[in-house]
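Batch manifest, entry 17 of 40.
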Amino acid sequence: MLLPQRLAYISSIAGQQLAFAIGVGIEHATYGIITPPVATIATVMFGLWWWASIVDRSATASVIVRRSFAALATIGLLASLVLTVLAGHSGAKLSWDPKMSEVTGEQVSSEG
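Output type: C-alpha cells
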C-alpha cells in the first residue's frame, strides 16, 4: 500500500522537474498537485482499517469502524487511480499535441 503513495510523490517531483523543461498545462499541474495527498490519505485510511481489524473492541463499534475505514480507503484508492489516469492523459496530450500538429498540419489544442 505504501508503494502507490510513494510513486505518486516521485511522479509529482519528476513532473515538476519536467515542467521547467517543456512547460505544463494548468489541468495537468492540478492533477499532479492533488494526487499525492489523495494517495497519502488512502494509505492512512488503509493503515487505520488494518489497525482496527487487529484491535479487539466491542463487536458493533469495531465493525462500524472497520467498515468506515475500509470504505474511505477504497474511495481514496479509486480517487488516486482516476487522478493518475487523468494526469497521465493530460501529460501525454501536452507532450504529443505539438508533435501531432506538425505531422497533420492542424492546430491542436494543447490545454490539458
